[in-house]
Amino acid sequence: MANLRAGLIGLGMMGRHHARVLGSLEGVDLVAVADPGGDVHQVAGGRPVYESIEQLIEHGIDYCMVAVPTIHHEPIGLALAEAGVHAMIEKPLAQDTASAERLAKAFDDRGLIGATGHIERYNPALQQARARLEAGELGDVYQVATRRQGPFPARIADVGVVKDLGTHDIDLTAWVTQQNYTSVSARTAHKSGRQYEDLVAVVGQLTNGTVTSHLVNWLSPLKERITIITGERGTLIADTLTADLTYYANGNVATTWAGIAQFRGVTEGDVIRYAIAKPEPLRVEHENFRDAVLGKDADIVTMEQGSGTVRVAEACLESARSSTTIVLAPSS
């Protein structure tokens, strides 16, 4: 069987990593790349470098990775759908809910595989956390709290921190718990003089009553990517920078020393940092999309799911603008 012919549009900071993985992915040939600004990171490796999606389609591709600025996702995605080309589009799927829904419908109407590049789902720590939640190891999930902060990336100019970084936490929280958001209340700040917000704090609730909180900013010298999942039997902490997963079990040994009990609070149980395999999330993401295109069992983030994440992100922004809690109607 011939290898799939893949194309890549967008050769910036993320595009160069996609080029590296696609160029070495089993069963796939990266046949051409495109970027109106040229191959600034020298990743083409002798392949043709085009300026437009139309030229890339004309070259002949089975599927395309789209890693351009968010504002361009919809026109490029619709052009690929019209040409019958499967596509994975970097997150967020689009700049607003209406655009994201149009993309999802275009690929679905044509029977094409369309995916959103929410890479955190493929982080080994979160993959393990999801499996352990499914196995009931934590019991009922009470709360998911995330912290995602670090310095401002100058390359992001068309969306704020909610849609760029916050969509990671929205997606991973819904996915790891297998619940949807029912409400969000958010506050934002503009501290760096840019058009868009650079800090957000969100409190939300999920379908089964799980409470969520997300702290996200581009203002901290500390780079942090932490997900804390608290349930009836203990707490899982996933550090997606190091792909470590640690379990803090509730204890069943009473603390009789009053001073320690007052200081420590609840009874502590065992603490386990799991030894887990740590494949590169980006490669796992591409392997799953390749398999989906081939019609094999695969775990991809569908465009419908990507559209739902944009919808929640926009609800967060509306909550911040209106200083109200936004109730999210069930997805259609």
From TrEMBL:
Enumerate the InterPro entries for this protein: Gfo/Idh/MocA-like_OxRdtase_N, Gfo/Idh/MocA_Oxidoreductases, GFO_IDH_MocA-like_dom, NAD(P)-bd_dom_sf
Organism of origin is Intrasporangium chromatireducens Q5-1
Q: Name one GO molecular function term.
A: nucleotide binding
Q: Where is the Gfo/Idh/MocA-like oxidoreductase N-terminal domain?
A: 5-114
Span of domain GFO/IDH/MocA-like oxidoreductase: 127-236
- Keyword field: NAD
**The protein's name in its UniProt record:** Dehydrogenase
